[in-house]
Structures are given as C-alpha cells and as structure tokens.
Known about the structure:
2 domains, 8 helices, alpha/beta, Rossmann fold
Amino acid sequence: MKIELNGKRAVITGSSSGIGYAVAKGLAEAGAAVVLNGRDKKRLAAAMAQMKREVPGAEVSGFAADVGSVVDVKRLIASVPEADILINNASPIESKPFFDIPDEDWERFFQVIVMGPVRLSRHYAQGMAKKGWGRVLFSSSVTGGFMQGEMVHYGVMKAALLGLSRGLAENVAGTGVTVNAFIPGPAHTEESYMSRAPKEVTAGRSFEQIELELFAGGPLPSLLKRFIHPEELANFVVFLASDKASAITGAALHVDGGIIRSIL
C-alpha cells in the first residue's frame, strides 16, 4: 500500500519528540508539509533540523506554542490558518498519587489535553469541511480505559478525548472530513516507563531487562510483551490521515499491543 499526502499540510502538536515526532516524520515521508509544535524553542528547532536530515526534501516548519494557552493557540492559528490534517497529540504526563494531585494540576492537564484540541479542532475542522477533505486525529491512551492509580488526572483527560473525537465526527458528518481517536499502548519514548525507573537504569540494568520484567507478568498485560516503537504507532496514524482510510470515522482505534482485553 502506497500512501501519498502530497499537497496536504499537517499540524502535529507535541511533535518535537516521541510519538508526535514519529507521526510528523511519517507524514513528511508520505509527502505532507508538516508543522511541528512544542513549547521549547530549542528542542523544536533541533527537531526540525533532525527531520530535514532524515527526510531530505521535506517541507518542514515549526511553531513554538503551549496548546494549553488560549493566547498561544491563537498565535499558532494566525501563523498557520489552514491545515488538511490535525494531529492532537500534545499532553503532559506525570505520576502522582490521586490524593496529592492539586486543583492546579487538574486544570493544567485539562487545558492542554482537552481544551487545546477543542480550540484547534474548532478552527481547522471548519476549514477542512469547506474544502471537502480533512483529517482530525486525537491521541488518547489505554489509561483512558483504566485509570492507573498514580495517573488518574491523565487518564480522565484522555478518556474525555474519546468523547470529543466522536462528537466532532458527528458534527462534520458528510463533509469529507473524518475524525478518529487512536489509543496507543506504552511506547518506548523519552517519557516511557523506562524514564520512570531511574534507579534500575543507573544500577546498570539494561533496557531489555527492565522491559522483560514490566511485561512478563508485570503491571503491563501486553500481548506483544514489549514496548511499542513510535514508528509502529506512526504507521497507523499516517494510514488514518490518508485517503486509504476514507471510510473510517467516529472510531476509537487501539494500537496498544493487546493491553485492552476486549473484542471491540
């Protein structure tokens, strides 16, 4: 299957590293002009330079913005007024016991994970509908199905994205715009479970040893028995962003390695 996105412009939030960067790279390889986003200007510039090296000839730009900020979202939209593909990926992640999560953290997570996508989708999806083609994708999480004890606020917001995705799909029905959520499992990124085990890493244990313990009867019931590589997630997202997935909309699709025990 050959996917071509020539002539399409994609905005990918939270794309200076990790899953977002992998998705942006996959879209660029398919021919899309990509707009990277991150809060840190230096990291964003480094990501843009890296992508230009890895995907020669790609049209790559970037915009530093905190998508949890109303002002920053307005600046982003003013700089990039139209997009054919919107990937709502940005989200903070942290482990904290429920009783230690203050209101300020709940509000911060809500603004970045939920309201950022609301504002961006509200703007870009209207333009897509007028043109008769578009793709809006939301990055949810398996924690949206079962809120881990130390990540309740993260899981709640990711669950909210599933409702947002379906609701938006209903609102653009019949316009040529598809809207879907993809649900990644634990991925091998800078913010993966690897980064949450610094003591084990500094003790000289290899990543493979830690991965084996986490998945072999440990806290992560994956059928793959390993972390998912960002490129594996990106392959699926690029497919959803293409004409090849034109009949898929209003869906919440798992790319989780079989963690969710469900036939639907």
